[in-house]
Structure formats: C-alpha cells, structure tokens
C-alpha cells in the first residue's frame, strides 16, 4: 500500500475535513477514529510510517489519506498541506496540531539534541503547521485550529523541563493565534491535558497513578471527544481542561505558585 495516497473519491463540497499530526498512535489515532466514524475526511500525518500503515489498514482509504511527516520540517509540512488540499478541494475544517515528543530526566543530564528535538516538534511544529495551513483554514467557513497542550503548561514539572517549556510556549502561541486568526474567521482551541495512556507514558509510572482526581490516567479517546466538542460547541472556548479538575490546579498555581513549588519540592525529596 502507498500510504502517501488518499482515497479515489476525495471529498465533496459538503464534506468536513480534519488534518491531524501525530496521527499514528495515541490521541492522534483516537481523534482520527472518532472523526472517521462521523464520516469526515481524515488526513493522518506522522513520522511513524508503520503506525500510519496500521491505521490505514484499520480505517481504509475511501475517506482518508496517510502521509509521513516530520512536523519540524517546514518544506515537508507545506507539502503535506498541499497534498491534503488537493484531495479536499482546498478545504480544511480542523487543523489538529497534536504531534509531540517527550523525554524524562534531569535537564542537566539530557542530551542537547533531545532538548532541541522536543522544542522543534512540540513548539516549532505547531507554528509551522499554522503558517502552512493558514490559507486553507481561512478559506473554510467556521474552521478550527486546535492544539494538544499539557498540564505542564500550568506549572513546570521536574524531570520534564524541556517538555514543560515547550508546552508553556505552545500555550502562549495558542493564545496569540486566538487573537490574530479571529479576524480571518479561524477559531482557536487548546487542550490542557493531564495524564493519558499513550506510548509517551513510561510503563513504570502507571502503577503510581491515582485512580481518581486530576492526575488520574485517561484514555486517548478523551482527546478525540475534546476536539469534537471544540469544533461543534457554539461557544468558542480557548482552554479546555482534560480532565476538568485541572482548572482548579491552574487557579491554585496562579494564586499560590510558591505553595505549588514547595509541594513539588517535597515530592522530590521523598523519591
């Protein structure tokens, strides 16, 4: 199978379309499944070729396309958007900037190449995505640019310094885009996401997670539901907390940052 090709039929004028980065697994794949089930045309993009091939086998190619993409490569991203637009007749109802990478460990001990890759994929990738897809979004009525963020954008996490920095930056970028893109008819949403059961979560961390509360383990389908709601809700919500309890954590971090810092220090001291 040539995963660079989409279905023969493409999209008719009334069809809805979504462009998903990081679609080969986890939250991206869950979002692709959800929108495909709703008969949207789904563009699936990821650096993981084998994961894309498996998803293509699952979803079929009648109303989907599957293309390898490194989101940190501006030329490749522009080419992916052009290929998507050629099939959708220039339509993009949703751009889901979802691709992300993570690495755990003390910042000082982390390879600099790893730090650069985290920033390139998590922050520069969505920036490249917006620049690449802007015209398609602008030409599509009621379009949505949606970003997969993290609870690490509320307060930086130990052993996730570069990741936290990338997600803080992404949050600021999403907020800026909510202002800049509004005059062009493009809505913007950003998910402040807790702990999700994906390959990014180290297996040894699962046993330590609570079964309830804001840091409980969630399934990737929760993100799919969040993107679906973001597109269809009448009220444009900038930050969506997944789970909702994270809004309480943000309120505490905003008003009592030293207390959150001290709690984090105490947790580190008992490791």
Write a concise keyword list for the protein shown above.
globular; Rossmann fold; 7 strands; 7-stranded parallel β-sheet; 271 residues; alpha/beta
Descriptive notes:
- The chain has one domain: Rossmann fold, CATH 3.40.50.
- The chain has 271 residues and is α/β, with parallel strands linked by helices.
- The relative contact order is 0.13.
- The longest helix has 28 residues, at 112-139.
- The protein starts with 16 loop residues before the first strand and ends with a helix.
- The mean pLDDT is 91.
- It contains 9 helices and 7 strands, in the order βαβαβαβαβαβααβαα.
Largest beta sheet: strand ordering = 3-2-1-4-5-6-7
Q: What's the CATH class, please?
A: Alpha Beta
Q: Which overall shape is indicated by the principal axes computed on the Cα atoms? A: globular
In CATH, what is the homologous superfamily? NAD(P)-binding Rossmann-like Domain
Q: Assess the beta-strand content as a share of residues.
A: 5-15%
Whole-angstrom Rg: 18 Å
Structural class: alpha/beta
How many runs of DSSP E, i.e. beta strands? 7
Main sheet record = 7 strands, parallel
Distance between the termini: 48 Å
* CATH topology tier name: Rossmann fold
Query: Ranges with pLDDT <50 over ≥5 residues?
Result: none
Whole-number count of domains = 1
Helicity, as a percent range: 40-55%
User: Overall mean pLDDT score?
Assistant: 91
Compact overview of the structure:
The protein has 271 residues and is of the alpha/beta class. It has one domain: 3-Layer(aba) Sandwich (Rossmann fold). It contains nine helices and seven strands, in the order βαβαβαβαβαβααβαα.
């Amino acid at each position: 199978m040539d995963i660079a090709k989409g279905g023969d039929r493409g999209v008719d004028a009334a069809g809805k379309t979504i462009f998903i980065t990081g679609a080969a697994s986890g939250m991206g794949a869950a979002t692709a499944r959800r929108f495909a089930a709703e008969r949207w045309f789904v563009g699936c993009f990821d650096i993981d070729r084998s994961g894309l091939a498996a998803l293509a086998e699952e979803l079929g190619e009648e109303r989907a396309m599957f293309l390898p993409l490194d989101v940190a490569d501006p030329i490749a991203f522009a080419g992916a958007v052009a290929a998507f637009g050629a099939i959708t007749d220039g339509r993009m109802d949703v751009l889901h900037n979802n691709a992300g990478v993570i690495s755990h460990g003390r910042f000082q001990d982390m390879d600099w190449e790893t730090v650069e890759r985290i920033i390139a994929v998590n922050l520069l990738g969505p920036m490249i995505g917006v620049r690449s897809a802007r015209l398609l979004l602008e030409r599509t009525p009621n379009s949505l640019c949606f970003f997969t963020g993290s609870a690490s954008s509320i307060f930086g996490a130990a052993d996730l310094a570069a990741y936290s920095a990338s997600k803080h930056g992404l949050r600021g970028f999403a907020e800026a885009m909510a202002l800049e893109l509004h005059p062009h008819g493009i809505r913007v949403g950003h998910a402040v996401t807790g702990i999700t059961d994906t390959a990014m979560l180290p297996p040894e961390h699962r046993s330590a997670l609570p079964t309830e509360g804001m840091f409980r383990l969630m399934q990737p389908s929760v993100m799919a539901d969040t993107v679906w709601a973001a597109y269809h809700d009448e009220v444009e919500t900038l930050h969506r907390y997944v789970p909702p309890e994270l809004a309480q954590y943000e309120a505490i971090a905003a008003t009592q940052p030293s207390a959150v810092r001290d709690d984090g220090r105490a947790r580190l001291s008992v490791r």
